[in-house]
Amino acid sequence: MPDVLGTQSPANLRETQSTEAAEPPVSRETATSSAAGAVFMDVRVDRIRPNPRQPREVFDETDMAELIHSVREVGVLQPIVVRPLEHDHFELIMGERRWRASQTAGRETIPAVVRKTADEDLLRDALLENIHRSELNPLEEAAAYRQLLDDFDISQEELSRRIGRSRPQISNTLRLMKLPAGVQRRVAAGVLSSGHARALLSIDDEKHMEELAQRIVSEGLSVRSAEEEALLVKGRQESDTVSRGTHRLPTATRIQELDEYAEALTDRLDTQVKISLGAKKGRIAIDFASLEDLERILEHMGVYVQR
Q: Which of 74, 97, 119 is the last residue of a domain?
């Protein structure tokens, strides 16, 4: 993961943590070692407060139960990261699951790397940890991206460069925040995948989004099936639009022209071609029998794909 906003990268921090953690646990009631402004020590669990800008909101109960059991049996093996506050208290930067598990397991202290971190870096550090661990659900990730863009007043391109995510991936994730509230809850709960959500976003009407989301869940539709259903919904919406404004329907002359175009393409490509014209856009469908047949058609069209 690349350096973000000109500060120490999570990879370097993990290296520091592993180096510190490898030292003998002698006299960790106070600082035992320090490097690059970080101090390794045991911290009282009740003196730590959560990161107020933690992007993650949902913690899987099964995973937490397993972690609590592990912490109760063998302790916390990987230190959390905190920053110092007044009166010997600390604020969490990374490792909220381990801290929560330690609380539930009844442990009094937890190994921690203590380092000074500015307020504006808290969200970034928490986001990077969760992205690295793939623990954020898609909506939490979208909300974190939005907060980073707003807080640092940067473009999606700049955010892409700084956190090592492609710009289209960031853009597609941000679009999930446009989903209706009911659909968002399903995505957050993991009932709908981000692929399902993107299929739903191709529909303009929230009511139809909700209806298709319910069908996806009840019928167990795959992402591909959801995309096909979304296309059908859009087609019906366009037909409804046309019926409300018949002046936008293609005339008989125009339909004849489309048939002639389709016939000409069928002859040229030596395969069935269909052309349709809706209220807002048209569509060309070209049949092919196999991958080899598709390559032949592409060659006729002057399209060559390098392998």
A: 119
